[in-house]
Amino acid sequence: MSEKRTKKINDFFIYKNNNLYVEDVSVINIANNIKTPFYVYSTASLRRRYIDLATSLNNIKHSLYFSVKSNSNLAVLRVLSLLGSGMDVVSGGEYLRAQKAGVPGYKVVFSGVGKTYDEIKLALNGGIRQFNVESIPEIIMINKIASSLGKKAPISIRVNPDVDAQTHEKIMTGTSENKFGIPLNSALEVYKMASELNSIEIVGIDLHIGSQITDLLPFETAFIKIASFIEKLREEGHSIDRVDIGGGLGISYSTKEEDPISVDKFAIMLSKIFSKLNIEIQLEPGRFISGNSGLLITSVVYLKEGTNKNFLIIDAGMNDLLRPAIYDAEHEFLPVSETKNNDNKIVADIVGPICESSDVFSKNIILPKMTSGDFLAIYSAGAYGAVMSSEYNSRPLIPELIVDENLVSVIRSRPKIEEVIKRDQIPYWLR
Length: 431
Hints:
By secondary structure, the protein is an alpha/beta fold. The chain has twelve helices and 22 strands. It has two domains: 165 residues, Lyase, Ornithine Decarboxylase, Chain A, domain 1; 175 residues, Alanine racemase (TIM Barrel). Strands 5, 15, 16, 17, 18, 19, 20, 21 and 22 form a nine-stranded mixed β-sheet that branches. The protein has an eight-stranded parallel β-barrel with strand order 6-7-8-9-10-12-13-14, surrounded by four helices. It has a four-stranded antiparallel β-sheet with strand order 1-2-3-4. A hairpin with a 2-residue loop joins β21 and β22. It is globular. The termini are far apart. The mean pLDDT is 92.
């Protein structure tokens, strides 16, 4: 009998006998029943990431609100809501998803720069912990709607501290060049204006400087500025009971590296800056919890061998995982089966089937030589994967699945192409 071999990628994605497992479920078994490509999430990983962060903050007055925009599947939201997580939403649709997942309105924070009349009304009627507001016109609109409903709207004003988060320019949100928040040097006047409105209740202050931040220094710089400003607000008579510091904690996109920021060190830094203020710290983690809790499973369509370059064409495209195309993001590729001859390797660009030159996942990757039908797993695909997918090239949205120990369930099905086409309507004069 051959010896059984186990190799960890992390605690929940493991090679057993050279085959990749999500918890206790074989990826090959799933792929033999669900056509690739598809997303698969680990419940245990979602739980562990949430609990690790919450535990690191035990000595700090805090609350957590999962960023729904990172992964909005109801099953994922339900896993986190059962752990006590609130939700940070940026649209009416996300608000309704949070409700459907069992999150009460008082545990929902509504962020975003362009909240509409209908979205504000929806949240006021359904219950809301706070609106994170970003402009004077938005404050005036919220006051008007709240007044018409006979309600008082709780708001935190988002300020822009003008701090470079040292991350990709498309996910940086805290500099004066970004559209988010109110400049710190004019925020005092905005607080004064908002405090004079009858249907507004100011409950705190909000900031968020960017996503996938890999160094503590930008956080520290921004938080010191905000702590100083909170003291100034209180001197002016404003009751600031909570500071919403957003999310942004970066993760490792490699199975060989730890996360770039220790959550324990992050917690120590927060305590050092905010403890003297006796204030509740609200965090909005997204990627940190869901990013490394999911895989995108794909299969090889062809190996196209060229004179100067090889192309490994897979059945997942940029419409399924957009991050490499718009953020130059690098995801690690893992063979689902490691039974290939280790000496028989290729160097290739991994590309998708979409008719775009930007449909490239990675360049010059060394992999075992693969043939049509071989399976690959794309690591760190649990955040900003399925939520950003589209039906470009008339490719139906791909399935999402979730695993809990030895249980596996489809949590979003792939629609038939006939259903996709049927949504379009030809006007009567063209029939």
